[in-house]
Amino acid sequence: MIASLPNLKSLDNLPIxxxxxxxxxxxxxxxxxxxxxxxxxxxxxxxxLHKREIKSGRIKVQSSKxxxxxxxxxxxxxxxxxxxxxxxGSSTWPFLHPLSLSGFESDKGFRPRQFExxxxxxxxxxxxxxxxxxxxxxxxxxxxxxxxxxxxxxxSVLGLCWLKKYPSKLIAGSDxxxxxxxxxxxxxxxxxxxxxxxxxxxxxxxxSLTSVHVNSTDELFLASGYSRNVAxxxxxxGKRLQVFTDMHHGHINVVKFANHSPSIFATSSFDxxxxxxxxxxxxxxxxxxxxxxxxxxxxCFSPDDQYILASAVDNEVRxxxxxxxxxxxxxxxxxxxxxxxxxxxxYMNGRDYxxxxxxxxxxxxxxxxxxxxxxxxxxxxxxxxxxxMFVQSLRGDPFRDFNMSxxxxxVRPGSKSEIVKVVKADSRVQKKFSWRGEPxxxxxxxxxxxxxxxxxxxxxxxxxxxxxxxxx
Length: 472
Fold this sequence. Notes:
Radius of gyration: 23 Å
Shape: globular
WD repeats: 245-280
Organism: Trifolium pratense
Strand content: 35-45%
GO cellular component, one term: Cul4-RING E3 ubiquitin ligase complex
Keywords: WD repeat
Distance between the termini: 33 Å
Protein name: Transducin/WD-like repeat-protein
């Protein structure tokens, strides 16, 4: 509404004064972005490509101050960002695409609980289910690559992490404490439950697990859970090296290694603290402690390790300097006043933007990571009129600017969660899919809003998710 006000003559039969238009314009540019990377007017993709070819260097980021994250007009990064801004500016609606899996021998429906993009293969994604399964898929062709059934007691897969130097391997952890390393090259696509010893390594259990993460050299990984402890494992030997005790006053929901420093890691806890640790210093005392006003749901590093992003309950999202824990930015996202509105946030487009969503809301917010200004609010609408999908988790696509996937749940009892890809709209025939059955043609229901902090579904309802509090 506030974005449209300067172009209106009247509203509800009342004339709009010039002072109202000026105030609306000022508020919009203070809190919102019209286009990515501070562009104030649209430019065509062809025009940008033409200027790149002739190396004119005349494309300008139209802002009063040049941010270090927006490089000069002759760099490759500048043209990449310019093309992203042009493409997003030409897209009126994003495309909501729930994944469907083909080529599966069984008429089986999955109940996804956690997922991760592959760090080096743009086509791959892994998801874990509430039933303890681990499924690797090609999310572009929507075909299963590897299927790992649940073995033993029922459990939910809450921790997943790919290895970087060994792209066929991943760590999976379940809430019953099970920790395994899988090699998908030795695991069949069919539901057999049979694979050789080379396909799986079992580690010592970590009770009530919620999070796992591998370091940058693929030598170590950490596990945290519904406790104040963190366990360190050696991947090569398959042994647990150490358990660090009482690292927080509350349980540690998420642990993350830095992307480039193999000994640096961060923890987030419901005791309201985020802490940075260094394995070289035998983590007894943290490098620093940064605090939120509410319990922290998760933490992650920016891709270049310059910042850490902390998400606390009910839309409290803060960015800290990774070098010393100084507060860099508070994202202005309105709270819902719910103590069960668990918020998760991740970086997108490198460290240029963040995406944030909460389990009591059907909104995914895209914010500039340098200014905090809101670029878009994406409203997830369900399959039937009036039904909303609530955000359980989300990830930015590491290979495609302004693309993401969202793990969403319907508020209706008995409804299954879905992994929904959100991509820039194109001219293709749009299809609606679910986790089972054949695709049917329909119009995807998704709204792109200027702002919707107060737009919420049934305020007393919560998505059906037994473990929405845990994990990233």
